[in-house]
Amino acid sequence: MEVDLTGKRRFSRKNIRMMLLLAALVLLTALLALGCSVINKPKSGTQKVVVGAFQWSADQAMILLAAEKGWFKDEGLDVEFVMSGGSAQELILLANGTHTFGEGGLDTGIKAAAEGLPVKNVFVLYQQSPRAIIYSDKTLKEPKDVIGKTIAVIPTESEGPMLPLWLKANGIDPGQVNIVNTNWDSQAPMLMSGQADGVATWCASLPFMLKDQGKPDGCLMWKDTGLPTLHNGIFTNSFTLKNQPEMVRKFLRVLRKGFDATRDNPEAAVAAVPKYCPDCDIELEKRVFYKNIELWQTPRAKAANLPLGVPHPDDWEDTVKIFNELGIGEGIPATSYYDYSLIEK
After folding, report:
1. Which comes out higher in pLDDT, residue 78 or 291?
2. To which CATH superfamily is domain 13-129+230-337 assigned?
3. pLDDT of 29 strictly over 80
4. Distance CA 94, CA 72 (A)
5. CA-CA distance, 340 to 122, in Å (whole number)?
6. More confident residue, 240 or 14
7. 226: left (phi over 0), alpha (psi -120 to 50) or beta
8. CA 284 – CA 197 distance, rounded (Å)
9. Is the terminal CB of the chain with fewer CB neighbours within 10 Å at N or C?
10. What mean pLDDT do residues 106-132 have?
11. Is the CB of residue 194 less than 8 Å from the CB of residue 108?
12. CA–CA separation, 200 vs 127, rounded Å?
């Protein structure tokens, strides 16, 4: 299953295929329902919009702040935030018309679109990936230092098949590294106990956990060491995009407003989170969120002065090339996966 910046989960490839087959069965029926849109107009005259994510937490604080400020309502949008089972399930709920918008990993989005689901990315939330080798070993300062070390990885997550790519990108034969499997419950204890020298996962909450335990911590960020990929974003159904462009434009306008307000006052954005995630460790979420604001844009996007939410085309090309090496979406142009034409400059 897909995870967010605090370590949530995503579905395995097997489950993705099963759900994609299920989507194919329900898609034909969904196409009959007003261009696959779940938009309807309540008596108030506002448009109903259902937005899904694995969990609503500080990762999406900029969106939740916009909701608390009433900016969606100001645009005539009656937004309902719902939770789903991760990126793979979310994309199916978009494809069959259950949800209007949804958050998902671009890796899963590329795979889903390549296998025929009518979904497109319309806004990138975190352009830079938080994937990394998390370490509590002071000797791990650069990629070559992992040679001869034990690196734990969850094999069913994206980091599983991507770890050998990262090693090869740094001139390291995967056979030179002791790669061991782990799971979500075991990765932190393995690192803290010394069973593993590093963990291939997201540079999110785990380094803070190490720091709080008085242990050395650090992240070998893949984005800086040979494996840069765009990370996650907001998707919608291709038919919704075609048949409800003004509604999509309004939604994206509010997203931009939420991002701008969060950049000016991140503390206010995090303050909006507990209402939507009462069980979250808000102090930990806040620390992760403040650190990851820097992941909103890539250097290319900043240099080109692109609007928030719009990545640089070259970053998309690099991302697709990397996933092509994993056998995902070979021969499909990067431009087929996204549409940012409704994001206002």
Report:
1. 78
2. Periplasmic binding protein-like II (3.40.190.10)
3. no
4. 20
5. 5
6. 240
7. left
8. 23
9. C
10. 95
11. no
12. 19
Would you identify the CATH topology of the domain 131-224? D-Maltodextrin-Binding Protein; domain 2 (3.40.190)
Can you read off the two tokens belonging to residue 46? Answer: 């506002």
pLDDT at 204 over 80: yes
Nearest one of 124, 114, 153 to 234, comparing CA atoms: 124
Q: State what percent of residues in the chain have pLDDT above 70.
A: 87
Domain ranges of the chain: 13-129+230-337, 131-224
DSSP string, 16-63: HHHHHHHHHHHHHHHTTTTTT------TTSPEEEEEEES--SGGGHHH
Q: Which residues pair with 219 in a beta bridge?
A: 134
DSSP secondary structure, 270-329, as one string: HHTSTTT-TTS-HHHHHHHHHHHGGGSS-HHHHHTTPPTT---HHHHHHHHHHHHTTTSS
CB within 8 Å of 18: residues ≥ 6 apart:
none
Angle (CA) 116 122 126, round 5°: 110
How many Cα atoms occupy the beta-carbon half-sphere of 223 within 13 Å?
20
- What is the spatial distance between Cα 61 and Cα 44, in angstroms, rounded to a whole number? 27
Instruction: Collect all residues with Cβ–Cβ distance below 8 Å to 61 and sequence separation of at least 6.
Output: 262, 266, 269, 270, 272, 273, 289
- Residue 15 has which token pair? 């489950």
- Topology match between the domains 13-129+230-337 and 131-224: yes
By C-alpha distance, which of 60, 65, 63, 32 is closest to 49? 63
pLDDT of residue 44: 57
